[in-house]
Design goal:
The complex is a heterodimer of chains A (272) and B (340).
Chain A (H helix, E strand, L loop, with lengths): L2 E10 L2 E11 L4 E5 L6 H8 L7 E6 L2 E2 L5 H7 E4 L11 H6 L14 H13 L15 H14 L4 E4 L8 H16 L3 E6 L2 H7 L2 E6 L2 E7 H4 L2 H8 L3 E7 L5 E7 L15
Parallel strand pairs in A: 3-8, 3-9, 6-7, 7-8
Antiparallel strand pairs in A: 1-2, 1-4, 4-5, 9-10, 11-12
Helix pairs in contact in A: 4-5, 5-6
Chain B lengths: L4 H25 L7 H13 L7 H35 L12 H14 L4 H26 L4 H26 L5 H10 L10 H17 L1 H7 L3 H6 L4 H23 L5 H13 L3 H25 L7 H21 L3
Helix pairs in contact in B: 1-3, 1-13, 2-3, 3-8, 3-11, 3-12, 3-13, 4-5, 4-6, 4-11, 5-6, 5-11, 8-11, 12-13
Classes of the chains: A alpha/beta (272), B mainly alpha (340).
């Protein structure tokens, strides 16, 4: 039940995006992929999903090279939650989630009773059953992201790979998605997700992989890897990791980037 | 409406089927020579069962030899263009494409025009139309993919327009080379889009491939839904995107080629009908395709019947569909791109 990359080189054709990457995603674990813009996160994700062929090294699922898996068997094991893209076709939320069952059906087969049941159960697990008949592009960004996660759930995959699941969501919806990801893990699914918020890694990830320029800058247990030194090197500017005490008495770590122009240094506007 | 989608679809489908039946009755009865509905029924019944109809020979001949082929041709062409349009729209994840906008119809017309110039039989005309259509769509896909760009929808539409006008130049050349007394009027009239040339002996050879293409698209309906997602999503859901696209393109182009070789390049049906159907029953292809077939057939039949009965001289249906289609396309373009 492990998705593993060994000495992986990835990119497009002759353009190498990353090299020499080792990564492991065992079951029941959340791995967070951090990296600045252009560090190769999405390309890596697509390679791990088998959508792009590795340039060197290999990606293996259950010890077997991903390229040798038939496309439907692979899809039944590895699910992808993309960043919600604009589409001009208004499939309903339920129809979208049912597409997650594609790999379980023959080429010509209509969705069966079990497909409908699993799709409905996925909607209920994510608390969006009431939206089933709504067109997917007329629900909020957070709800759409939940629907895409429900689609991944409906595929009954053992590994779910998410590309910036919290991007462009408001603060409340970001927390909602983090909660659902943590719940996926509790239900036995392995999750790999990318994000631009190291705080999200601190909240739910078991392990963190830091990617810069296509190479692993640091990787390991979240508590050990997410520190001021690594983050500053990763993003190219000073970042502190502070500990805050929440009102319920729990100490949590959070990341704070230093700003050159602190509010105190700025001249106050005068209106006289 | 609070009906569940399935009930809503059943109601809509039944209503459209009833409208189609009424249209067919109108089409059989109306014309220079009015035939009462009862006589139409008797003629069709006797043709189906082989019993004597008791009708004058002229009435039977008008119903069976003149109007029946024309009704069948209009139904087949409308259904084929609508099915091809619906399939192309999902395939290219693009609500603005159709056989004519992608340049496929023009490619088919060029292929068919070359075959007509050489006075080849209808089967070969169809083959040339099919090859011309495949070449046009292949060129559009290749150029569109090569350009890429930030707005693939617009790129594809523009590429289709360019390839279509290239085929238009080829068609102009065919016309220039055609014999001005016999071939030129025939080719010109056929290009405008018309069912007058729909001969009974051409029908089986045209409608059978259309049925085959539609059957292939219908069989793949659940996978075609997934094609409406991004390529990465479709592939991650277990769809062999490249192979499926190829099969659907071949099927949709075959349907278009048969429609074009029978009735010329009738535009807009493949754009308008799938949109209307989507508004009525949603995007799911298992509902969209049957309703598109029905609406496409009904629309084409209504246009053709109106064209031959409402005016003093017969108007080519392609002209009417263009008058209807242009404002709708502008509205769709505005909905997709205009800033609010």
């Amino acid at each position: 039940m492990t998705l593993a990359a060994r000495a992986l080189g990835f990119g497009f054709g002759t353009r190498v995006v990353g090299e020499g990457l080792d990564l492991e995603l065992p079951g029941r674990e959340i791995v967070c992929l951090l990296g600045p813009n252009g560090s190769g996160k999405t390309t890596l994700l697509r390679t791990l999903l088998g959508l792009l062929a590795p340039l060197s090294g290999e990606v293996a699922l259950d010890g077997r090279a991903l390229a040798t898996w038939p496309i439907r068997e692979r899809a039944a094991r590895l699910a992808y939650v993309p960043q919600a893209a604009e589409s001009h076709f208004d499939y309903s939320v339920l129809e979208t989630v049912q597409m997650g069952r594609t790999a379980h059906r023959g080429l010509f087969a209509a969705p069966g009773e079990r497909d409908r049941r699993v799709a409905q159960a996925s909607l209920e697990r994510l608390g969006i059953a009431a939206l089933a008949e709504r067109p997917i592009h007329r629900v909020s960004g957070g709800e759409r992201q939940l629907a895409l996660i429900a689609r991944a759930l409906a595929s009954e995959a053992s590994h779910v790979l998410m590309d910036e699941p919290t991007a462009s969501l408001d603060f409340g919806n970001q927390a909602l998605i983090l909660d659902e990801v943590a719940r996926l893990k509790a239900a036995g699914t392995a999750v790999l997700f990318t994000t631009h918020h190291p705080d999200h890694a601190l909240r739910i990830a078991d392990r963190v992989v830091m990617l810069r320029g296509g190479r692993v800058l640091a990787a390991g247990a979240t508590a050990a890897v997410v520190n001021s030194e690594n983050l500053s090197a990763l993003y190219g500017r000073a970042i502190d990791v502070a500990e805050v005490l929440s009102p319920d008495g729990v100490a949590r770590r959070t990341c704070i980037a230093r700003l050159e122009a602190r509010p105190g240094n700025l001249a106050a506007p005068r209106f006289d | 409406m609070t009906l569940v989608p399935r009930a809503r679809f059943a109601l809509t489908f039944a209503a459209c089927a009833a409208a189609l039946a009424a249209l067919a009755a109108w089409s059989f009865t109306a014309g220079r020579f009015a035939v009462p509905v009862a006589d139409v029924w008797r003629a069709l019944w006797s043709a189906a069962t082989g019993s004597a109809s008791g009708l004058p020979d002229t009435v039977s001949a008008i119903v069976l030899q003149v109007r029946a082929p024309r009704v069948a041709a209009a139904l087949g062409v409308g259904a084929a263009l609508a099915a091809a349009g619906a399939a192309y729209q999902n395939l290219f994840r693009n609500p603005l494409v159709s056989p004519d906008i992608l340049g496929v119809s023009a490619g088919c017309a060029l292929g068919a025009g070359i075959a007509l110039l050489a006075s080849l039989p209808i089967g070969v005309v169809q083959l040339f139309a099919f090859v011309g259509g495949l070449a046009a769509v292949g060129l559009v896909v290749a150029i569109g993919t090569w350009i890429g760009g930030r707005d693939p929808i617009l790129t594809l539409v523009l590429t289709g327009v360019v390839v279509g006008s290239l085929c238009g130049a080829g068609i102009a050349l065919v016309k220039y080379l055609a014999d001005p007394y016999n071939q030129l009027p025939a080719i010109t009239f056929w290009l405008l889009g018309s069912f007058t040339g729909a001969l009974p002996r051409d029908l089986p050879g045209t409608l059978a491939p259309i049925a085959l293409a539609v059957a292939a698209i219908w069989a793949l309906r659940w996978r075609i839904d997934v094609l409406a997602l991004s390529e990465d999503e479709a592939a991650s859901l277990g769809v062999d995107v490249r192979r499926l696209r190829l099969v659907v393109i071949v099927a949709a182009t075959l349907a278009t080629a048969c429609a074009v070789s029978l009735a010329g390049a009738i535009g807009w049906v493949g754009l308008l009908v799938p949109h209307a159907a989507r508004l009525l029953v949603g995007a799911a292809f298992a509902r969209l395709l049957p309703l598109s077939l029905l609406l496409g057939a009904a629309f084409m039949l209504a246009v053709d019947t109106a064209c031959r009965t409402l005016f003093a001289t017969e108007v080519p249906p392609g002209v009417v569909t263009a008058f209807a289609g242009t404002p709708v396309f502008i509205a769709l373009l505005a909905a997709a791109f205009r800033r609010p």
